[in-house]
Amino acid sequence: MKEWIQLSNGTLTAEISPEGAQLMSLCAADGVEYLWQRDPAYWSGCAPVLFPIVGALRDGKTRINGNWYTMKQHGLARHRVFQADKQSKSRVVFTLKADEQSKQEYPFEFVLRVEYSLAENVLSTVFTVENAGDVSMPYAIGGHPAFNVPLLPGERFEDYEVRFEKKETADCPRIAEGGLIDVFHVLKHFEHMDILPLRHELFAEDALVFENLSSRKVRLLSRVSDRGVEMDFSQFPMLGIWSARNRGPFVALEPWAGCATRTDEGDEFTEKHAMRTLNPGESESLGFSVKIR
User: Fold this and answer.
1) Mean pLDDT value of segment 216-221
2) Are 280 and 131 in contact (CB under 8 A)?
3) Cβ-based neighbours of 170, under 8 Å, separated by 6 or more
4) Which domain holds residue 142?
5) The pTM is what?
6) Which terms in the Gene Ontology molecular function aspect does this entry carry (predicted)?
7) Mind listing the pLDDT tens digit for each residue in 260-276?
8) Could you give the number of structural domains in the chain?
């Protein structure tokens, strides 16, 4: 396996693995590690790239152009090795292109680029998807960075909260068996509120999935130390917030363009909720940023 690539600007140091183009570390100058460090007792990932699906398919299958395809949760990109290029001290671009193996799961000529860059105390991530084929290409994409909660010794999970940019009134659909989004059973988490106090019980049934939020930024902060992160997800229509059901000491903030199969839809890939489409030769870029404090 290739070595991780390190970016640094004196304020932040990021390390990224070519396998999945996954962020593996995000460390402040004082040595505090912000990114979850993959303890398999809770979750062995930390920040996978979700493409060309976000979440799960019903029974792990979908139909594309009349044929059935099998794809694992969150898609194929996180299991593939990317090519790293356009690298400098504070920026790198990873590229993954379709091949015969990828077409067994997703029969399209795609090019996926993942760019990471540092500026002061901000890490920016940009996904660029290109349709290099001659037919329309449906896809979904998202990020999944998880952050240590707590960050500092002596703090507790319950000392942290998620602060939304604006007051929200929002429902979250239940996550059903198999990871599907159950739109027929929703839970109200906000009634004109902008603060979600953290407790492990929030994630007893998996992720909280928000759509149509007024907020375009969200903070994950300690009430004790005021340390944490701020995510700008303004280019993404959905936001997932997740932690492991077995009291995982982390919280993932997940900007999504697309989501798991919903209980009110079938298995046609092009008809999945929030699916995006590129015509032949087109490309699209979606980015988010994480500011540490």
Assistant:
1) 98
2) yes
3) 188, 189, 190, 210, 212, 213
4) 5-292
5) 0.96
6) carbohydrate binding; isomerase activity
7) 999 999 999 999 999 99
8) 1
